[in-house]
Task: inverse folding
């Protein structure tokens, strides 16, 4: 009894001396399990933070003795990690999805129509935009036709995007208004990088894929900056609640860069954003004018190029025909000539080139293209986004040309039901092959591709490690030999994501001198066989508490 009394007394004296003397910092988080994610995977107890930076990480007593702080947080042994980064997401598309009719999860075409009718009876829009349908969830995996849509909405334009954003269904009113059929027929770039879907009687179904959508996109009304800003802030909150503190935004228009800048000036957008510019005229001017551009938490030094379409809508460019469409092998959505020009612009401006490549043919073309930059700049970090279907003979090129694979493990388990029907058994070997890609380059940038998938990073961990979806299907894992470890997956969202965006000196680990961008999780981060939701308990960006459950 006496001994215990003494030890409590000693603790009090120690704590008091800690608040009286020592170096002053802003915040100490202690009694924690801090996964620093440094090279040795060190786990520490306490961390001292000042001016948004990590001053020291170390054992409990050492930190408490050495520093006095304005604020102490007792983490009660919660796990602390570097803030997670979603290395491939679309804040802007997600914002527009939130403002449109939500078609995500509709289980039939009829359900989609019911959702539209309900929405319209409440909102009375004069241009209906919906997002998120996925015919692979419906009977027979058949693309819809616009017949019933025309009956319901004969006098206003309706535009409904597929979940991947690579295809849309329009009603006849909009088709006429946009003159899309004529425009595509007379423009080889539009017709070679996309297509229309006709039914068995050669009637146009209203479905257009990839570049064939462009004349519609040109006349699509956009939401106001106020509407978009409110949605962006809502998305930021959702990400914080998952411990996500950064997003590699995979494709920005110039006006969207302006909107991000404005929200940063207003100090309402604190998320770390690594912006990939779409290669438009204005954005190319931006790159030439600014070079590597940093404005607080917004870093821009890369271009996003769409090499091909998506597998679900058969826009991925394959080396051989589709197994479920024998006259078709997909296409490039950007010509090789244009991609070479963009590579040259990247070379001149010091920008990174990040190319969307799904099909094995596209991947091969990009791997060859990137070999040139490797000759002059071995540490170029140019990325292939998705790297989804790779001819096994081409894997070695990732190492040979130093190409950074950027992957989204939830895609593997979402596509598990139909990927093989598109590709056939033989081509599955090099598909969604994250472990093989990792063994070539030594790193993966890992993201979700939201809003195509959910923002939840724990679904990513579950998919990457167990190769199963949120319902734990398939029980034995989808191509389980391509699983990666929990540590590797977390690196893909922390250290490797930082490296993939040239931010390894500021982000990605909990080490002295780096940004105090960290997260305390409610439950231990694990990869148990059954999916367990997990959330942030507190999220910090540059030492500022941006989220707390309390
Ligand atoms: Zn994407």
Result:
């Amino acid at each position: 009894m006496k001994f215990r009394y003494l030890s409590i007394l000693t603790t009090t004296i120690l704590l008091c001396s800690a608040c009286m003397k020592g170096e002053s910092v802003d915040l100490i988080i202690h009694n924690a399990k801090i996964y620093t994610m440094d090279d040795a995977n060190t786990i520490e107890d306490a961390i001292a933070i000042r001016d948004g930076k990590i001053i020291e990480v170390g054992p409990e007593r050492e930190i408490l003795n050495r520093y006095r702080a304005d604020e102490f947080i007792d983490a009660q042994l919660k796990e602390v990690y570097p803030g997670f980064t979603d290395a491939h997401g679309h804040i802007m598309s997600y914002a527009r999805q939130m403002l449109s009719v939500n078609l995500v999860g509709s289980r039939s075409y009829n359900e989609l129509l019911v959702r539209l009718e309900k929405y319209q009876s409440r909102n009375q829009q004069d241009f209906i935009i919906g997002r998120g349908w996925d015919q692979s969830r419906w009977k027979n995996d058949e693309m819809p036709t616009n017949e019933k849509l025309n009956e319901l909405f004969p006098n206003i334009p309706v535009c409904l995007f597929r979940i991947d954003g690579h295809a849309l269904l329009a009603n006849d009113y909009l088709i006429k208004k946009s003159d899309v059929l004529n425009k595509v027929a007379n423009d080889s770039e539009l017709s070679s990088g996309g297509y229309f879907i006709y039914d068995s009687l050669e009637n146009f179904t209203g479905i257009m894929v990839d570049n064939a959508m462009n004349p519609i996109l040109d006349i699509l009304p956009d939401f106001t900056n106020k509407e978009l800003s409110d949605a962006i802030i809502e998305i930021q909150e959702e990400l914080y609640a998952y411990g996500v503190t950064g997003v590699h935004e995979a494709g920005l228009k110039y006006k969207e860069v302006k909107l991000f800048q404005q929200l940063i000036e207003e100090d309402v957008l604190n998320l770390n954003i690594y912006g990939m510019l779409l290669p438009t005229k204005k954005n190319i001017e931006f790159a030439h004018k600014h070079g590597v551009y940093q404005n607080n938490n917004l870093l821009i030094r890369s271009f996003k190029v769409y090499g091909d379409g998506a597998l679900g809508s058969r826009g991925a460019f394959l080396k051989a025909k589709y197994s479920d469409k024998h006259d078709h092998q997909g296409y490039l959505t950007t010509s090789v000539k244009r991609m070479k020009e963009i590579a040259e612009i990247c070379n001149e401006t010091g920008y990174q080139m990040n190319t969307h490549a799904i099909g094995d043919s596209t991947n091969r073309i990009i791997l060859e293209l990137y070999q040139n930059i490797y000759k002059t700049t071995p540490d170029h970090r140019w990325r292939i986004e998705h790297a989804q279907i790779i001819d096994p003979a081409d894997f070695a090129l990732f190492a040979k040309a130093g190409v950074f694979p950027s992957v989204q493990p939830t895609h593997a388990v979402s596509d598990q039901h139909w990927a093989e029907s598109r590709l056939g058994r033989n081509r599955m070997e090099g598909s969604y092959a994250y472990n093989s890609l990792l063994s070539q380059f030594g790193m993966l940038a890992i993201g979700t591709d939201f809003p195509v998938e959910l923002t939840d990073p724990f679904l990513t961990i579950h998919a990457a490690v167990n190769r199963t979806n949120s319902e734990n299907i398939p029980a034995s894992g989808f191509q389980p030999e391509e699983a990666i470890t929990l540590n590797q997956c977390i690196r893909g969202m922390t250290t490797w994501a930082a490296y993939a965006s040239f931010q390894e000196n500021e982000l990605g680990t909990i080490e002295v001198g780096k940004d105090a961008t960290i997260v305390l999780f409610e439950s231990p981060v694990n990869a148990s066989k059954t999916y367990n939701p997990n959330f942030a308990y507190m999220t910090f960006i540059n030492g500022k508490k941006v989220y707390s459950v309390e």
